[in-house]
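Sequence in, structure out. Go.
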Amino acid sequence: GVLYFFLVLLVFSFGASFARSIGMTLLVQNLGGDTLPVMFISIDFAVMIGSMAYAHYTKTVNGLTILGFFLLSTAIFSILIQFLFFLMSFYHLGWRWMYGFFFVGFTFFYILISIHVGSVIASYFTAVQVKRLTAVINSGLPIGGALGGSSLIVLLKFFHLQPQQLVIILGWSCLGAFGLLHLIHSRLSPVRI
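Output:
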């Protein structure tokens, strides 16, 4: 079970590192650093509203299903953003708002996933196991982030891709993590519900 959860975090974090770097770079480059306070306030409001809905559904829906929903929603969001970036590039559209929308949207999903993943992990292990294994499982986050960040550098520097062309990697990683959740669901049973 430890390996599955480690891989979910690693795969998700791989794509999230792309989105985090691309989102911040495009936002500051196209809208300026002075927009950051407004973006962070927007993220906080979005998370506040999302957390209320999240709190409602945690009472009726199991944790793995909610995590799967968050991952699929993030994948769909990244596919939509990738398509809109393509339209912006192909038709030379001046949709500068897209940079803020991508940054706020990605960060919204990232925070909700980060909040929720701990409770999902805790439901599959005893209290003693959680204390011992959490550090190992959570090490998937920085390892995935480092691998993703390194891959992003290679794709930008050596293959000369534009950051806007790489948003889809977040979607692929979320779909990969979602697939791993299906393995967890089919092979493991929660200790607590």
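Check: The radius of gyration is 17 Å. The helical segments are 2-31, 36-58, 63-90, 97-123, 127-138, 140-157, 168-187.
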